[in-house]
Amino acid sequence: MTLGLDDVGLLLAPTFRSRAYAQTLAAHGMRPALAVLLPGEEPAWDGDETIDFRFGDDRSGIDFHPGVSAKETVTAAGWETVTLDTNDINAERAIETFDKLPVSVLVYSGLSKVLLRPPVLASKVRFLHVHGGYLPAYRGATGFYFGLLNEGRLGVSAIWMDDGIDTGPVLMRDWYDPQSGVEIDRVMEPMARADLLARVLRIRARDGHYPSTAAPGEAGLCFVIHPVLKNIALARAQAVRTKDSSEDVALTS
Amino acid sequence: MDRYPCGDRDLFRQPESYEYAKCDGADYLTVWRRSRDAALEKLRARATAGPAAAEAEAAPVSPPAIPLSDILSEVMTAPGDGRARLDVLVAKFEIFRRLFGYYEPDLRRAPYSEVAGLEDYVLFGEVLAAYAERTASPMYVSTLLKLVDALCSVIGDQFSAAAAARLSHVIERERALVRYWQERVGVAP
Hints:
The structure holds 2 protein chains of 2 kinds.
Chain A: E1 3-12, H1 16-27, E2 30-37, E3 51-53, E4 62-64, H2 70-77, E5 81-83, H3 92-100, E6 105-109, H4 118-121, E7 126-131, H5 143-151, E8 154-160, E9 170-176, H6 184-207, H7 227-236
Parallel strand pairs in A: 1-2, 1-6, 2-5, 6-7
Antiparallel strand pairs in A: 3-4, 7-8, 8-9
Chain B: H1 28-48, E1 66-67, H2 68-77, H3 79-96, E2 102-103, H4 118-135, H5 138-152, H6 161-184
Antiparallel strand pairs in B: 1-2
Helix pairs in contact in B: 1-6, 2-3, 2-4, 4-5, 4-6, 5-6
């Protein structure tokens, strides 16, 4: 059964996060109105072709194919697509495109560390972002790792983007248990975010409105985690790889 | 990996972003510890060497500018009220990788103030270590690690014997904090 999301679009960049988003929504039978594809070179994947991904007993997972681009998934699923010629969502021509889209919400999976400026915030679409970090305690680019250090779990929060660093209203947040042996940066973190996104959109489709939560807690801004602490966090998640990877992996925010 | 990658240049002049760090090797912490051992050796040599070249005298700054050292000393002794002020300095260091010698009471950089001296940065390290120990917050440990990376990248004649000894102590505390986090999350060797 297809779950139509007629007023929702996805903004997808060539990243592992966008791959996780597209594959998760497609696997759950969700069909957004369109996908906006951002330009750029697709990152290479050097691991297993398929990762059987499950978050706990009560949540269904998917077979994640990290090597399959979001564009391939979107095309195979038959979603409408719009291609942008810039990955700067604050650019004037990007805003013009957003204003013409037949959707009211764009799920943001563009470049990391982007702050929305007033013009794009004034456009007709709202940006739904899933942050890697349990808000408000773990704002910032590596909140995910600080949460893992402190809590032993992976925090994820869905928010409406505003002009601050992960300061927008929280729709839903949750903790995910790490899976032993699964790479965090390119698989577990994107998949945790994709899972929460699917849960948010399912509620939207079922109830006709988006969830929201007061998200109580002390606010904290996390700067980029030092590699020594990141190494310890990775060890905690039993995800330290035994061989060096030759590929740089961006820490997505 | 046989060489710690965060210290092969003057990190105050050419800061490290840490954003794409390759750190998932099982030997990463061993290499990091060796790098700090080498820094401690240099610092011991400095601590027993002759007098260091004096730091350049700071340019006069008009009142009500406050020396960074005074702000840090106050933050150190007033943990309750000091944390908010420390967090502002942490944010400045994390974003710009440098501090200045003088600030206005609202912690804006004082006009004409020059960058902080090594003694100020060592004091900043002592304050970060103290807060990391008091609060068990990994955020302060993370900033401390970056600061010590930067200080270790410039060890040389400009360090006074006293500053060298104090930085050595900061490195020992940094090492204890890393050990604490390894033990806390159950991954100590």
